[in-house]
Amino acid sequence: MSLATYNIWFNGLFARQRYEAIAAILAAEAPDVMVFQEVTEPALTVLLAQPWVRAHYSSAAVCGGRLGHYGMLLLSRIPVDRVSYTRLPSNLSRGYLTARYTIGGRAFTVVGLHLESGKAAAAVRDRQLRLVVDSVRSHANVAIMGDFNLRDAENAILPADFADVWPMLRPDEPGFTEDTTINHMRYDMKDKHRHVRFDRVLLKADTWTAHSVQLLGREPVAPELPRIFPSDHFGVQCTLKRVSRETR
After folding, report:
1. Which of 15, 84, 87, 234 could form a disulfide with 95 if both were Cys (CB 3.0 to 4.6 A apart)?
2. What DSSP designation does 136 have?
């Protein structure tokens, strides 16, 4: 089973080209479940219009209205038993999507979240993450993924019973999902360097194990636009393998 999370950036800069590039990346990778953050109405239109999405994926979106300029999207080609959206205490209308599945007779839950941004919001993120984790604490098989906005100094708030997949599988690589050494568009926005791993996949499971993880969208959208990338964030894709009864 393949999972992916992508903060696709609400900014209008070359938005159509960026959204189409993200769609092409995901069409090639074909994750089973995808969650997106900073989804605007134009982004939602582009993604849901993709032939491969229309043919193979169900969707759940929370976008616009009282949530502000952007929201969240879930795409799934695995049948979903139930999906819900929960608002978090936030100054930025943040929240999380919860999708519940039955796979091979066992329950599996995917949570897509977007926590508060900004250095000054560490206490808010702490409270938000606790609420999210508490909502699935009793679930045996859970993936929590999205834009956590956590600085390294905040890693201590990560739940101890969940594995942070990137450092577990690739401990010698930083896995920066905002990386101005590569992403010139991100540098041009702020005129300063940034190297952070805001986007993560956390896993707690007794019937699944993380097998591989990679970053998505590390190339410009086109040769003629060398400083325009699909987003200011890189996406994260994680592949899970089912654990056999003999190895449990």
Report:
1. 87
2. T
Contact 3, 209 (CB under 8 A): no
Task: Name the one residue in this structure whose structure tokens are 């970053």.
Answer: 215
What is the rounded CA–CA span in Å between residue 181 and residue 18?
19
User: What are the Cα distances from residue 88, in Å, to 30, 83, 125, 203, 240?
Assistant: 30, 16, 10, 21, 28
Residue at 132: amino acid letter: V
Rounded to whole angstroms, the Cα distance separating 11 from 19 reads: 11
Distances (CA, A) of 78 to 85, 161, 174, 207: 18, 25, 31, 17
CA distance 222 to 216: 15
For residues 31 and 2, the answer to whether their CB atoms sit within 8 Å is: yes
pLDDT digit string, tens, across residues 158-205: 999 999 999 999 999 999 999 999 999 999 988 889 999 999 999 999
The CATH code of domain 2-242 reads 3.60.10.10
Residue 91 half-sphere exposure toward CB, CA atoms < 13 A: 9
End-to-end CA distance of the chain: 18
- CA nearest to 117, candidates 96, 97, 143, 91: 91
Q: At what angle do helices 15-29 and 41-48 cross, to 10 degrees?
A: 40
Strand partners, 203: 143, 163
Q: Phi/psi at 43 (nearest 5 deg)? A: -65, -45
Q: Amino acid letter at 191?
A: D
Q: What is the pLDDT of residues 16-64, one digit of tens each?
A: 999 999 999 999 999 999 999 999 999 999 999 999 999 999 999 998 7
